[in-house]
From TrEMBL:
GO biological process terms held by the UniProt record: tRNA threonylcarbamoyladenosine metabolic process
Full protein name: Pcc1-domain-containing protein
UniProt family annotation: Belongs to the CTAG/PCC1 family.
PANTHER family documented for this protein: EKC/KEOPS COMPLEX SUBUNIT PCC1 FAMILY MEMBER (PTHR31283), EKC_KEOPS COMPLEX SUBUNIT LAGE3 (PTHR31283:SF5)
GO CC, any one term: EKC/KEOPS complex
């Protein structure tokens, strides 16, 4: 896939974050979309995409959170991506502590090892 460079936003980065289920990916997307980008010098788009395994299996489950960032400078891109990573880390930590599916999976893993 070739994308043209946007003259207003010459610096770009796409980050794919895989989640175990599409529900968890969707939850992360909803949590991240609440906060608007703080700078007009940065553009971002969050979407859900299927994993490579899902594509190969003709499965349409979208369990990958895709974050596409564009910025006017490398510095602005770095600052925006660092903020995204901090928010994503918090979201994943909360999911690990509170999400019923994650807790159930942990419980099953714990009983299987005993």
């Amino acid at each position: 896939m070739t994308t043209a460079i946007d003259p207003d936003f010459p610096c770009a980065l796409t980050i794919d974050v895989p989640f175990p289920t599409s529900r968890l990916a969707s939850t992360a997307l909803q949590a991240l979309q609440v906060d608007k980008e703080l700078s007009v010098l940065v553009s971002r788009i969050f979407t859900l995409a299927p994993s490579k395994d899902a594509v190969e299996a003709n499965n349409t489950e979208t369990s990958v959170l895709r974050a596409e960032y564009k910025a006017t400078t490398n510095r602005m891109l770095r600052v925006a991506v660092n903020s995204f990573m901090e928010s994503l880390n918090l979201i994943i930590e909360v999911m690990g502590e509170l999400d019923e599916d994650v807790l159930a999976a942990r419980g099953q893993a714990g009983t299987e090892t005993q």
